[in-house]
Amino acid sequence: STSxxxxxxxxxxxxxxxxxxxxxxxxxxxxxxxxxxxxxEAYRAEDYDKQILVEMGELGLLGATIKGYGCxxxxxxxxxxxxxxxxxxxxxxxxxxxxxxxxxxGGINEFGTQEQKxxxxxxxxxxxxxxxxxxxxxxxxxxxxxxxxxxKPHTSKKxxxxxxxxxxxxxxxxxxxxxxxxxxxxxxxxxRGFLIERADCPPGTLETPAxxxxxxxxxxxxxxxxxxxxxxxxxxxxxxVEGLRGPFSCLNNARYGIAWGTIGALEDCxxxxxxxxxxxxxxxxxxxAKYQLVQKKLADATTDAAYGLLAALQVGRLKEEGKAAPxxxxxxxxxxxxxxxxxxxxxxxxxxGNAVSDEYGIGRHVANLFVTQTYEGQSDIHSLxxxxxxxxxxxxx
Length: 397
Ligand code: TGC
Ligand code: FAD
Hints:
This protein has ten helices and nine strands.
């Protein structure tokens, strides 16, 4: 049909396979029925129910693009649709899923030994074993290449390395069983990936304190990873990958997911604002949705959401064929995070004083979307990645 649907303005659905549509419906139904009812309390209490990852595991939503190991093996577009549905509820819930699926399971699947894959992936797919990804350090965020965390041969334990250093702003670190930590091998000065298992760390060698009192992403746990001569078996190191290519390859998948997810959050802002504007009356008993300035806000946001989804779809299809350049992912990560944040802030105005009440949900999305613009490469960093690709000149240093 040629009719216009404000919830899918450019008919994204027409570009999806039946399987992708079915996966989106499963994810939507779980997220709306089971996650949405918990988010307000979780956000207020700054709490994350780790049972959510078990439930997602039961539905096959974790590490969904991975083939084998109990994972669903779905398309990159289907995985983007899952992310969109989760973030429609809350960016923090998507964050918990992203680190588990894209950053840790994805990293193990791409760079791990067969033994590491067999040992970690099946339980991670079930949400029984929780992961976190430690790249950022207190003194090195946008520039992880300058990291200080170091791995050197252990002085007393044969076959072990000793890792010291600290990572900060790490999603899920307080509850993670396995931490994918990036550290420089002292011998070569090259960055390598290590799977650190909490249960095997002697007392005093690993601490994961939570970072509390956040003003965004409160339904997600964030913490540090402090390592003090922590012994890690050599077989827990990724065998071949060296340098920033390791962590950035994991980030390509997570950044791609965020491009879909943030539009899910924006779509929720649009739906909430539309409903509010149709009900709220001011001046001569008119719904405020009648006023042109309000309509423009909705038109702008709906347009940006529709464009953002089609761009993410295109990159997803290219990714499936192995043709997605990292710069394409920078482009959609930056654009979708920025437009989602900008429009959510504008739509918040439509709620008047009620925007300040957490019951209306819009303020939560605005605070969360600020974080999405910051992590996995702050938007200005993605501008520089694109600028370098356009001009051939790096503008970072
Ligand atoms: P540069 O010279 O650009 O590259 C160094 C090496 O890395 C390779 N590389 C990539 N490989 C695969 N995919 C990519 N996207 C890649 N980008 C770079 C590159 O080919 C090179 O390889 P080699 O073999 O030649 O050594 O490195 P640089 O030091 O100049 O980097 C600059 C910059 C700004 C691009 C980079 O450092 C950057 O992206 N910074 C942002 C940091 C960031 O994204 N941190 C994310 C932390 S994790 C997180 O936030 C998780 S939140 C999760 C949640 O809760 O949802
Ligand atoms: P900085 O690098 O200090 O940047 C500060 C500002 O300076 C930014 O606006 C930046 O764009 C700008 N800037 C820096 N360099 C340049 C330059 N050359 N040119 C122009 N501008 C520049 N990290 C992980 O490793 N794992 C996680 O799971 C994780 N989860 C997170 C969860 C939350 C809630 C948050 C807030 C962060 C998380 N992070 C995680 C960290 C995140 O990736 C970093 O915060 C981010 O990469 C930015 O680093 P920074 O905070 O050190 O900021």
